[in-house]
Amino acid sequence: MVFIGRENDLRQLEDCYRANKAQLVFVYGRRRVGKTETLTQFSRGKSTLFFAAQSATAEEQLASFSRLMFEAGAPAKDYLRQYPNWESALTELTRLPEPPDGGRRLIVFDEFPYLVKSDPSLPSVLQNLWDHTLRHANLMIVICGSAMSFIEKDLLSEKSPLYGRATGILKMTPMPYWDAVKFFPDYSAEDKALAYAILGGIPRYLEEFDPDESIGDNIKRHILRRIAPLYSEVEFLMHEELRETAKYNSVVRAIALGGTSLNEISTHTMIPNATVASYLTNLMELGIVKREFPVTAKIKERAKGTRGLYRIDDNFFRFWYSFVFPYRSELERGDEDGVYNRHIASVLHDFAGSPFEAMCREWMWRESMAGRLPFHAAEIGRWWDRTREIDVMAVDGSGKQAVMGECKFRSTPMNASMLNLLRDRASHTGIEHRSYVLFSLSGFERSLEELGEHDPDLRLVGIDQLFSEI
C-alpha cells in the first residue's frame, strides 16, 4: 500500500537525522496511529537497525536483539552466541560497521515499553551509555512506544533516568482530515466526509475500508460483522490500556448519548463525580475523550477541574459506541444488514454533523497558517453560553477580532436565515470586529451567494473546498 501523509512528522525526523550531533529521539502516540509505518518510511534509504520488541522475557528480548546486531555485523558475533546483558549489547552500537555511504546509522527500538517491562533497569543503562559514549557516536536512536502514559511519566518525566537526554520528542496524533481522505481517492466529497466522520484520522482504521465499496457496504462488512477487526477493536484497546473497562464503557457511552458535563456523566453512570473525573483524565490521555471550553474562555476558567464540556474526540470510538455497542445482541446473531438499515442509514448524516464541524475547524487552522484569514488565529474552537452556540470561531491574540462560522451537513442548501442567526449569536460574544464563514455540504441558495459576492466579511465554503489542496 502507498504511504499516505505524515509529511510534517517525516520532515522533523529528517531534520534530526541531519543534525551534526548524535540524536536520541522519542516517538510515541496511541495505538494504530501509524508510528511503525512512519518510522519504516523514514528509514528508507538509511542504514537502519530496526528492533521491534514484543511482550516477552528479558532473555528472549536480548536473544532477538543479539541476532539482529550480529546480522548487522557487530564484532561480538565472532565470540558470543548472545549478549549477556543490555549494557554490553547497547555498547556494541558504536562498534557496528560504518554504513557504506559513510552516513549516520539509524537505530529504532519499536515498542520500547515492552523492553522496560521485562527489564526495568534498561532506562538507567541507556542513560549511562548515552552520557558516556553514545552521544559522541554518529547515531540516531529512536525510542518508540504506544503506552503514552508510560512514555510521558516513566521515560520523559523528571523522575526518569532519561530525563533531559532527549534531543527530540515527537508525539504522533491522528491524521488531519485532508490526509485521511486520501485513502478514498475516488469517493465523492460527501462520502469522503462521511468516511472521516466514521473512522477519523487513524491510519489502521482507514485501511480497513475498501475504497471500491460504498460507505454503507463498508460499514456492514468492515465494522458490523463479527469477523471484522474493527468490530472488536474498541474492546481490545480498552482492555489493553485500562482496567475496570465496564465502568469506562459506561462513561464513554454516557458522552455518546449526549452527556457532556461532569455532573451529567456522573448522573448517567451513577458513579461519583471524583471517580468519573479520574476516568475522564485517563480517557483524555489516550486521546479518546477531549475537554472543551468556549474559545474565549480565560486561563483561570480552563484551570477549574469541574468546568468544560466533554466529548468523544475519536471519531471511530464515537461511531462504535453509538451504533455497535448498543446493538451487540443483534450483531452477534449476524444481523448487520438489519442494524444498518434500522439504526444507522437514516441518521448517518446527523451523526456526521459533529465531525463535519471539527473538519471545518481544522480547515480554519489551515487557512490561518496560509495567511488567508483576516488575522493570524491564536485560538480556534467552539463558542457557547447558556443558550447559544457557534460551531467554529477563530480569535486573534488580542481577543478583539474573530471569524465565526456555521456548519451544515445537510441535503438542502444553506439560506440567508442561517447567516442572520449566526450574526445574532455573534453579537453576544462581546467581540466587535467580526467576519463570517458558512460551511455547507449542499451549497447555498442564490440569495446567499449574492450576499457573499458583495460582502467582504462573508465567505461561503462548499464541501469541495474543504478537500482542495493548499
TrEMBL record:
One of its GO terms (biological process) is regulation of DNA-templated transcription. It comes from the Bacteria. Residues 3-209 form the ATPase domain. One of its GO terms (molecular function) is DNA binding. Gene3D superfamilies: P-loop containing nucleotide triphosphate hydrolases. Residues 320-411 form the DUF234 domain. SUPFAM superfamilies: P-loop containing nucleoside triphosphate hydrolases (SSF52540), Restriction endonuclease-like (SSF52980), Winged helix' DNA-binding domain (SSF46785). PANTHER family: ATPASE (PTHR34704). This is AAA family ATPase. It comes from Bifidobacterium avesanii.
